[in-house]
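If you are new to this repository, start here. Below is one unmodified record pulled from the training split, so you can see the exact layout before writing a loader.
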Amino acid sequence: MDIPSKNKPAAGRYALLDELRGLDLLSMIGYHACWDLIFLFGMSAAWYTGWQGHLWQQSICWVFILLSGFCLPLGHRPLRRGLIVSGAGVLVTVVTLLFMPEDRVVFGVLTLLGAAMLITGLLQPLLQKIPAWAGLVVSLLLFAATYHTQDGFWQLGPWQMLLPGAWYANLFTAFFGFFPRGFFSTDYFPLLPWLFLFWAGYFLHFCMGRARMEPLHRSVCAPLGWLGRHSLVIYLLHQPVIYGALLLLFHVFEQ
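And here is the target side for that same chain:
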């Protein structure tokens, strides 16, 4: 039996993709640790609520969503994967509503990714008829145009369209990006604009092609790859672990 070396992943896996996901996961854990310190433990950090914190948060979600779309064609059961991730998103919503209603997560990133996987899996026969380069360009343009859906308008360059207030009606419309008055979620990723970023990753996969992806088999940091391969479980557990660790730490230093 061959024993894989430390720098050689299991056959068929693109190790660098796992490691990029693992690195992004570490960044997300750091971001959420800062969130807990500021909003739950009362520490002050003006930069976190300014443009620096927003840039950090956006870098995490952009990489995570793009990478998820890019990796979808590597799996053979997108609908099954979509159902699992959607179920995890429902679990996060239920737990936060029951135990942390003031910090509830409604239509968070897992709900988005699960829905994007299901929609893409169902539409795959149609999406695969679109030239990859055209799909990538159109997806990026639509992502840019719909980026301000939550702000009530769509814009691309000088063109701008104000969206009807009637579209922002209820919880159902909030799933698409048109949230009603009084809606609140600490982690909100509706279909618009984020489905288009997911599709940009999906089409980017086919633009590259498998031959040009061969270097991605090489491992650079195996521990990051392990994190990336277990990203769903780590995502579900990281916030309770961070909160518990910080609670213990503050308790020790108060003695």
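Two things worth knowing about this chain: The longest strand covers residues 153-156. The chain is about 65% helix and 5% strand.
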